[in-house]
Amino acid sequence: MASLQDIRHRIKSVKSTKQITSAMNMVATSRLRHAKEAALANKPYAEKVVQVVQQIAATAGNDFSHPLLAKHEDGKKLILLVTSDKGLAGAYSSNACKAAEALVEDKANTPMVIVGRKGTSHFKNRGYDVVKSVIGVSERPSFDLAKKLADDLVERFKTGEIREVQMVYTKFISAINCEPQVLKLLPFEAEASDGPVTEYIYEPDAATVLGSLLPQYLYTTIYAALLQSAASELSSRMNAMSNATDNAEELISKLDLYYNKVRQAGITNEITEIVGGAEALK
Q1: Where would I find the H helices in the chain?
Q2: How far from 227 is each of 14, 111, 133, 141, 232, CA to CA, in Å?
Q3: Tell me: the pLDDT tens digits for 167-203?
Q4: How far is it, in rounded angstroms, from Cα 141 to Cα 34?
Q5: Contact partners, residue 238, CB within 8 Å, separation at least 6
Q6: Alpha-carbon span 233 to 147, nearest angstrom
Q7: Would you say residue 143 lies in a domain?
Q8: Taking each helix axis from N to C terminus, what angle separates 92-101 and 206-281, rounded to the nearest 10 degrees?
Q9: Rounded to an integer, what distance in angstroms lies between the CA atom of residue 279 and that of residue 194?
Q10: pTM for this entry
Q11: CATH number at residue 234
Q12: What gap in Å lies between CA 276 and CA 282, rounded to an integer?
C-alpha cells in the first residue's frame, strides 16, 4: 500500500498537470474564435472563385490550352500536406498523415511538400521524399504563404517533373468535428454543372480571363485549406485539453478518496495497537 506522502505527491502532480491543460484549453479556445472567423469569412469567396473558374473553363471550350491544364504522361505525383507545428491536439495531425499515406504510390518517388512540424517529422523519420517543409505557421497562415506554395507547385508542374498534385488538409466542420480532405489541385479539371449556369461577359475573351484566373484559383484554394486546417487544429487542441482537464479532475477525486482510506486504515491500526497494548498490561 502506498504511503500517505506518496499519495500527496501524486495528487500535487496531477493538480499541476490539470493547471497546464486548463490553461492550454483556454488559450486554444481564445485562438479558435479568431481562426474560425477567418475560415468562415474566407469560405464564401473561395467557393465563388472555384465556381467562376469552373464556369469560365466550361465556356472556354476544349481548344483552350494552359500550362496548368496540361496532362503529363510521365512525372511523379506530389502531395501537399497540411498538419500542425505543435502536439496535444488529439488525432488531428495523425489523421491527416494517414490520409496522405494512402495517396503515396512509392515513398521514395512521391515527393511531399508539408506544412507543419508534426507531418514533417512523421514522414522524414519514415524515409519519405519530403522536398519542402514549412514550419511555424500552422496556427496563423497567411495569403503570402499560400501564394509561395502555389508558385512552387506550379513551377514543378510546368517542368513536367510533376504530373499531378494532391492536397491533404483538414476541413473544419464544427468546434467538435473536423475531417481530413483530399483535393486535386493540378492539373486543373473543369467539372460539368448540373444546376443553373450563370452567364458572364468576358473581356477580351473567356480563354484570356481563365488564363489569368487559374493561378488566383490555386492561391485561393490553398489559402482556404490553410485556414480550415488552422481552425481544425485549434478545435482539436481545445477538445483534447478539455478532456485531459476532466480526466485530471476525476483522477484527483479518486486519489483523494484513496488518501482518506489509507489515512483511516492507519488510524484504525494505531487504535488497535493501543487497545492491544492496554489489554496486555492487565
Answers
A1: 4-60, 92-101, 117-124, 143-158, 206-281
A2: 35, 23, 18, 7, 9
A3: 999 999 998 899 999 999 998 887 766 666 667 777 7
A4: 12
A5: 25, 28, 29, 32, 175
A6: 21
A7: yes
A8: 130
A9: 96
A10: 0.87
A11: 3.40.1380.10
A12: 10
The cell numbers describing 189, all together, are 479539371
Q: How many domains in the chain?
A: 1
C-alpha cell at 119: 507531418
Q: Are 65 and 84 in contact (CB under 8 A)?
A: no
Vertex 188, ends 158 and 199: CA angle to 5°? 130
CA torsion angle for 110, 103, 156, 164 (degrees, to 10)? 130
Residue 253 lies in a domain: no
The DSSP bridge partners found for residue 243 are none
Does residue 252 lie within any of the structural domains? Answer: no
What's the domain range around 121? Answer: 21-192+206-240
Q: What's the average pLDDT block by block, 10 residues per block, for the chain (282 residues)?
A: 84 94 94 93 91 79 73 88 94 95 89 96 94 93 95 91 94 93 89 66 77 90 96 96 95 93 84 74 69
Residue where the block lists cell 468535428: 177
CA dihedral of residues 150, 152, 158, 163 (deg, nearest 10): -80
Q: Nearest 5°: CA angle at 9, between 4 and 15?
A: 125
Residue whose entry in the numeric block shows the C-alpha cell 489523421: 95
In a domain, 272, yes or no: no
